[in-house]
Every structure is written in structure tokens, then in C-alpha cells.
Amino acid sequence: MEKVNVAPSSTEGHFVETKKENVVMLDEVTEAFLIKEDSKLVTKNHTDLELEAESLIVCQTVYNPYSKLYEKSRD
Predict the structure, then answer these.
(1) How far are the Cα atoms of 41, 62, 63, 72 from residue 18, in angstroms, in the given order?
(2) Tens of pLDDT along 65-75?
(3) What is the pLDDT of residue 36?
């Protein structure tokens, strides 16, 4: 098992514990990942989650009322 960071822009990191070849980056800009096997998402500042095979992970977005745009959530 390895820890693969599925939130590269996060200051704390969000790691999936699985074999590295079972994590596929779908989109670098939105940081979307496909996890191909049962695994576990481990973070310092959130609850750990058990993931089932074929899980999709995307970064949380929030609405900024000043820019009137959706932006990636920050730690």
C-alpha cells in the first residue's frame, strides 16, 4: 500500500491508501481522480473515509460572492 495525494494544491494533503497504479488523475486543473479499488482516504483535517472500487474524488468548490465565481475550497 502507498499513500497517493489526491489534492495536490491542499496545504494539508488528502491521501488515498492504495496501490499507486490504481489512482488515475482525470483532470489536473480540477484535481479529479478515479480510484480503481477499495481503499481509504486519509486526511489530517477531515474524517477518514472508506472508498469502494471505482470512486471519483474531486476538490470541493465554494461560491465567492465577491467574484461571483465558484473557486476551489481552501484548507
Answers:
(1) 9, 29, 32, 25
(2) 999 999 888 76
(3) 94
Q: Which three cell numbers stand for residue 75?
A: 484548507
Q: What is the dihedral of CA 28, 31, 32, 35, to 10 degrees?
A: 100
What does the pLDDT average to over 27-50?
91
Kindly report the pTM of this predicted structure: 0.79
DSSP letters, 13-72, are: -EEEEE-GGGEEEEETTTTEEEE-SSEEEEESSS--EEE-SSEEE---EEEETTTTEEEE
Q: Are 52 and 38 in contact (CB under 8 A)?
A: yes
Backbone torsions φ then ψ of 20, nearest 5 degrees? -55, -35
Q: 55 has which bridge partners?
A: 35
